[in-house]
Amino acid sequence: MLIWVLFIALIVIFLALDLGVFNKTDHIIRSKEAAAWTSLWVSVALGFSGVVYWLFSEGMVDNPTGLTPGNAMLKYITGYLIELSLSIDNVFVIAVIFSSFSIPPIYQHRVLFWGILGAIVFRGIMIIFGVALINKFDWIIYVFGVFLLYTAYKMLRSHEQEFDPKKSLVFRQVKRIFPVTSRTHGHDFFIRRMGIRAATPLFVALVVIELTDILFALDSIPAILAITADPFLVFSSNILAILGLRSMYFLISRMLQKFRHINYSLVVILAFVGLKMLFAHQVEVPEWISLSVIVVSLATGILTSVLTSDKTNGELPGPGGEDSGPEKDQPAG
C-alpha cells in the first residue's frame, strides 16, 4: 500500500509542477517545447521500468500473478507502449474537438491538463474493476478479446466516418444544463452574463474530451489486461502514458497529415492483443513477441506515413481554431 501512496503522490507532484510552475502563465506550446516535454515524459516512463524491477526483486509490492522481476519489467514496458500507441488515436480526436469549438492554441494546454486529471481518476476506477473482473471471472478474457477485435474493425473503417463534436450527444446534453457562449473568455471555463452562469467553449471542449477519453479507455484497459493482470503494472503504465499525452498532442497535432497511416498500426496492435486474449488458455505468447509486434507495427506505420507522398494535399484540422477575441462579460467567481 505504501508504494501505491508514494506513486500517486509522485503523480500529484508532477501535475502540481506542470500547472503551478512550468505552465503557470498561459502560452502557446511550440513544437520545440513539446518535443522536450515528450522526451522527458517518455524517459521518466521508461526509467520507471528500473523501479519496477527493483520493487519486484525486493518484494515491495503485492505480486498476485507471481511475476519475476525481469518479466514484470518487460510487461510494464509492453503495457506502456500499448497505452502510448493507443493514445495517438486520442490526438486525432482532440485536434478535431479543438478545431470544432475554435479553442485558441494559447488555452489548449489548460483544457488538456484538467482533462487528463479527470482521465487519471476515471481510468483508475476502470482498472480496479477490470482487474477484479479478470480475477473473478476467467471467461471475461474472451469478452475482452472479442471487443478488441471489434474495435480494431471499427478503427479500420473509421476513415469512412466524420466525427463532429457539435453533433454529439455530449454537446447537446451540456447545452441543456448550461447556457453556452459562442466565444472564449480568456481561460475561464464559466462566465456570468446578465446574472446567468454560462459555460464557455473551453468547458464544452473539456467535457467532450473527458467523455471521449472514457470511450478510448474501454479499448485501452482491456488491451493492457491482455499483457498483465497485475494492478500496479496496469495502473502505473497507464497513468504514465496519459501524462505524456499532452506534450505528444502538441508535438504531433501539427503533423497529423504525415501520420495518416498510423491508424493501421493501431489496428494491427488491437487485433493482435484481441487474438492473444482469445487464445490465452491455449497458446502462451512470450512477452518479447508482444513487445516486438507493437514496436514493429508502430515503426512501420510511422515510416510508411513519412515515406509515402501526400497525393491529396489536404489538411486535417489543426490543433485549434483562431481566437475570436474575448467578450466583455464578467468571469464567474
UniProtKB/TrEMBL annotation:
Q: Which UniProt keywords apply?
A: Membrane, Transmembrane, Transmembrane helix
Q: Which residues form the signal peptide?
A: none
Q: Where in the cell is it found?
A: Membrane
Region of interest (Disordered), residue spans: 310-333
Q: Name one GO cellular component term.
A: membrane
Could you tell me which InterPro entries the record lists for this protein?
Integral_membrane_TerC (IPR005496), Integral_membrane_TerC_rswitch (IPR022369)
Q: Where are the transmembrane segments?
A: 6-22, 34-56, 76-99, 111-133, 139-156, 202-226, 232-252, 264-282, 288-307
Q: What is its main location?
A: membrane
Domain of life here? Bacteria
Is the keyword Membrane assigned to this protein? yes
Q: How does it sit in the membrane?
A: Multi-pass membrane protein
Among PANTHER family, the record links this protein to:
MEMBRANE BOUND PREDICTED REDOX MODULATOR, THYLAKOID MEMBRANE PROTEIN TERC, CHLOROPLASTIC
Indicate the family of this protein: Belongs to the TerC family.
Q: What is this protein called?
A: Membrane protein, TerC family protein
Source organism? Robiginitalea biformata (strain ATCC BAA-864 / DSM 15991 / KCTC 12146 / HTCC2501)
